[in-house]
Write a structure and sequence with these properties.
This protein is an all-alpha fold. 62% of the residues lie in helices and 0% in strands.
Length: 63
């Protein structure tokens, strides 16, 4: 599934400095990876094990 980019491809297309732009891209990547990990954990635990739910909550708090 292709989605449009959250940030413009090039920093000059927005009002952010290069540093802010890079920081936002890193933050978005961390969020994306964390959400993907939570999804994998839940897919691999269809019974809803409380320990897995707790791990998902901790990961969500980190991101």
């Amino acid at each position: 599934m292709n989605h449009p980019p959250i940030l413009p491809e090039y920093p000059e297309q927005n009002d952010l400095s290069q540093t802010e732009f890079d920081h936002q891209r890193e933050r978005i990547a961390k969020l994306r990876d964390g959400i993907a990990e939570i999804a994998r954990m839940q897919i691999n635990d269809p019974e809803g094990n409380p320990e897995v739910i707790d791990q998902c909550g901790k990961l969500l708090a980190e991101i």
